[in-house]
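User: Here's a protein and a ligand (3-methyl-2-oxobutanoic acid). What would the complex look like?
Assistant: Let me lay out the input and then the predicted complex.
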Amino acid sequence: MSTKLSDIRRVTTHQLHAMKKAGEKISMLTAYDYSMAKIIDNAGIDVILVGDSASNVMAGNITTLPITLDQMIYHATSVVKAVERALIVVDIPFGSYQGSPEEALKSTIRIMKESGAHSVKMEGGIEIVESIDRVLSAGVPVMGHLGLTPQSIYKFGTYTVRAKEEEEANKLIEDAIALEKSGCFALVLEKVPAELTKKVSRKLSIPIIGIGAGPHADGQVLVMHDMLGINKEFNPRFLRRYADLHSIVSGAVGAYISDVKSGSFPNEKESY
Ligand code: KIV
């Protein structure tokens, strides 16, 4: 049996590069808590993103903007305790790095020291290169994020596909090259045309992780709550649901309520 690069015990940024080189796709999912992180790490996921999508799926906010650095560190700390194999990336939240490279470094140091995570992710292109430099100079690996960048939702106005027009596509390619040059170890491309992803993936030697970015990315990421079917309301075209946890949980809770009401739970065997 041949050993795949992703079979090794601890996933590193170097290994992700090697996986791209070898044509082995990278799997990435979000997680925000100990119990779910443990399940997806044991299942063999390569990268776990403690995404600021926690603001939506854990805290019920409409956007990712309200989540704080303290809240991200809380989620990251819980995930780190559970994970033995996957590389853990933590989103630096809105308002914790855009001010200056010093602010980016300060927030990164808090995330790394307090949670024990392995790397951070920042949204943006050329405008954040100085901040990436500063974080990298402290020895912390950085993942980039281009295309639909949810922290800028009020600038975009909608969650529709980005970079469909040539001008925006060219700007995205320039940004991607700048992020690779600055030393990012990987790049998330969100909601962009599949052909643009193909172009960027061929141009760059760092892995491109897509979400709604088509099949040519070097890996794929989804928000765990979406792919497990916990959220019923979110139905973008790019989302494949691998389970219907909404129905399973709701059915189980319904059965529990009915057993409690009827007095059939607990029975004799379930009592002391
Ligand atoms: O926060 C998040 O979940 C993300 C993914 C959508 C890539 O940034």
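Summary: The chain has two domains: 5-241, 247-272.
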